[in-house]
Amino acid sequence: MGTARLGVVPFDHGSQYVSARNAKFKAFLDETVATNYASKWQPRGYAGDSGEGQISTWYVGTPGMSSIVRPLAENVRMTFGRRVHTLQRKDKLWTLWFDDQTSEGPFAAVAVTVPAPEAQLLLGRLPVLAEPLERVRMQPCWALMVRLDQRLLPEQDVYSDMSQIVRWVSRNNSKPGRATGGDHIVVHAAPTWTRQTEDMEPEAVAEELWAEVSHVLSLPPVRPAQMAAHLWRYGLCDTPLGETFMFAREHMVGVGGDWCRGRLAEHAFESGHALGSAIVEAFS
Ligand SMILES: Cc1cc2nc3c(=O)[nH]c(=O)nc-3n(C[C@H](O)[C@H](O)[C@H](O)COP(=O)(O)OP(=O)(O)OC[C@H]3O[C@@H](n4cnc5c(N)ncnc54)[C@H](O)[C@@H]3O)c2cc1C
């Protein structure tokens, strides 16, 4: 659900939109729209997620996808940009150790909500949680951000499953509340191609992906003003856990994420909500 910048232009380089099947998530999204953290997006000319016209309502954060989670972060003390490498349990309390050898805590409970392979590393000493994580499979995904000074894409705002290499192309500035002028394009590569190229330099990946997009959309040969590729190493879940979350009450630690049930933001919401409720219940 991240937003990255090329120069001053923001791009949604991960999640493109969210949709809701679950009533609780729908109510949350409607609230974010009412409070201007999100808007509905109706891309032009797309045949829809059913192939026969867009069936679900697509929501996007405004001014970027990451705005959708802002209401959840109000009144919460948060620390960014520090990677946890160890969870330490002592006297029934938890301490979090970071890569820079600093720590936070003690805490009465911990919720681990990182991708499954990283959760496995953090929870290695607790087989009751770590072992089931072995069955989860996550695939990498290259994302390409392209800034063009002129309009170049044909009228359609979204294209999906274009070729063996390109899975998604969208005009980011067709979303509500984005910067206008030119075309700001997000491309997602297909999983198999990403796996084959994940060790390549991002600059070389950007060139290859842009050449493929130009080819499949028959674009005139135009050099982008700027472009950059980003690898989501644990981007999309292939094989989910099959449980909404796991919580070890005797250790007061739980684990959740989209990969518990699927690969969408809605699955992350369901998992986080259920794990949070289990932790609150354990305290009561
Ligand atoms: C390319 C792409 C396109 C997508 N498109 C869509 C879409 O259109 N619609 C949709 O609904 N979903 C989409 N998704 C999926 C959606 O982004 C995820 O379902 C959602 O972000 C999962 O949320 P999460 O909180 O479970 O995990 P994440 O969003 O993965 O958050 C986990 C966080 O943990 C941090 N972290 C990891 N390890 C550590 C550590 N050791 N210490 C501290 N922090 C750590 C990470 O940096 C990250 O910020 C897409 C995903 C990708 C990659």
Give a brief outline of the structure.
This protein has 284 residues and is of the alpha+beta class. It has seven helices and 15 strands. The radius of gyration is 20 Å and the shape is globular.
How is the quaternary structure best described? single chain
| Tally of individual domains | 2
Mean pLDDT, all residues? 94
- Could you say what the CATH topology of the largest domain is called? Polyamine Oxidase, Chain A, domain 2
Helix content: 10-25%
Bound molecules: flavin-adenine dinucleotide
Low-confidence stretches: none
Report the span from N to C terminus.
33 Å
Total number of helical segments? Answer: 7
Strand content: 25-35%
Backbone shape:
globular
CATH architecture of the largest domain: Alpha-Beta Complex
How many β strands by DSSP? 15
Instruction: Identify the CATH class of the largest domain.
Output: Alpha Beta
What's the Cα radius of gyration? Answer: 20 Å
Structure write-up:
The protein is of the alpha+beta class. It folds into 2 domains: 4-72 and 137-238, Polyamine Oxidase, Chain A, domain 2, CATH 3.90.660.10; 79-136 and 240-283, FAD/NAD(P)-binding domain, CATH 3.50.50. Helix content is 24%, strand content 29%. The chain has 7 helices and 15 strands. The protein has helices spanning 23-34, 70-73, 116-122, 127-130, 191-197, 202-216, 265-283; strands at residues 4-6, 9-11, 38-40, 59-61, 84-90, 93-98, 103-107, 110-112, 137-148, 158-160, 166-171, 183-189, 226-239, 246-248, 253-255. Strands 10-11-12-9-13 form a 5-stranded antiparallel beta sheet, with helices on one face. A hairpin with a 4-residue loop joins strand 14 (246-248) and strand 15. The longest helix has 19 residues, at 265-283. The radius of gyration is 20 Å and the shape is globular. Residues 1, 14-18, 83-84, 113-115, 118, 141, 143, 188, 232, 235-236, 257-258, 263-266, 268 line the site of flavin-adenine dinucleotide. The site of flavin-adenine dinucleotide has 25 residues, from strand 9, strand 13 and helix 7.
